[in-house]
Amino acid sequence: MTRLVVVTGGTRGIGAAIAARFTEAGDTVLAPGRRECDVTDEAAVRAYFAGVGPVDVLVNNAGVSSSAPTAKTTLDDWRSQFSVNATGAFLCTREVLAGMRERDRGRIVTVASTAGHAGYRYTAGYTASKHAAVGLMRAVSAEVAGTGVTANAVCPAFVRTDMTADSIARIHERTGRDEAAAEAALAASSPLGRLLEPREVAFAVAFLAADEAAAINGQTLVLDGGGIQK
Ligand SMILES: NC(=O)c1ccc[n+]([C@@H]2O[C@H](COP(=O)([O-])OP(=O)(O)OC[C@H]3O[C@@H](n4cnc5c(N)ncnc54)[C@H](OP(=O)(O)O)[C@@H]3O)[C@@H](O)[C@H]2O)c1
């Protein structure tokens, strides 16, 4: 049966890989970027979901990151990461939840991060917002427990996307390390010892969204080669 899948932040990077995977499986996929559905804008999110029909799979993928020592993190920076990474996932989840409950069928998967499980230096806003996104999935999973709806999160380490390219550029700028050394430092931050490819995250999302994953609810799937064991 063809499903309607919405992947927020689906224009590039991990979101585009997730959209491609569902499309290849024969699903109908919508992959809005910020222009089509700004997940921080309550009215825009409401209007977007009102126009798309019954959603079978919601992937909360839209995300932003920045980095600074906590003592130098501005309130704007903190808020902007929370707005997209946590509040954005909440607003989109809220729009699809009632319909999924009525139809007794649905999958919600949030692309969190290893930073949804552990604290990393210079990422207070990102880490706290990803913990919040994981907390949101856990709360929703408790509400839908025993129904045909599930809510889970995937928690990848560094993935080869624009977001990671920006992190590499920042390391280069701040430390003078060349880009290869900066990438190696990010790769070494998990036992995987390399960057993930977006398609590996897409695989994990597709797994949690499968009909056969009906018993998996309120879980986090960590993709880091075995560093965080949950
Ligand atoms: N890259 C990593 O190492 C990594 C690791 C773990 C988790 N993640 C998470 O994975 C997700 C995707 O990351 P990525 O690396 O693919 O990032 P990316 O290449 O920077 O792409 C980010 C995507 O999010 C969208 N977006 C940003 N703000 C938005 C908003 N307000 N409303 C709607 N869409 C918005 C962007 O849309 P536009 O193109 O319209 O701007 C874009 O499609 C994020 O949640 C990120 O935190 C990434």
TrEMBL record:
InterPro entries xref list: KR_dom, NAD(P)-bd_dom_sf, Sc_DH/Rdtase_CS, SDR, SDR_fam
Protein family per UniProt: Belongs to the short-chain dehydrogenases/reductases (SDR) family.
Keyword terms of this UniProt record: Oxidoreductase
Identification of the protein by name: Short-chain dehydrogenase
Any one GO molecular-function label of the UniProt entry: oxidoreductase activity
Pfam families, alphabetized: adh_short_C2 (PF13561)
Ligase listed as a keyword: no
SUPFAM superfamilies in the cross-refs: NAD(P)-binding Rossmann-fold domains
Domain of life where this protein originates: Bacteria
Domain Ketoreductase, first and last residues per copy: 3-148
GO terms of biological process kind: monocarboxylic acid metabolic process
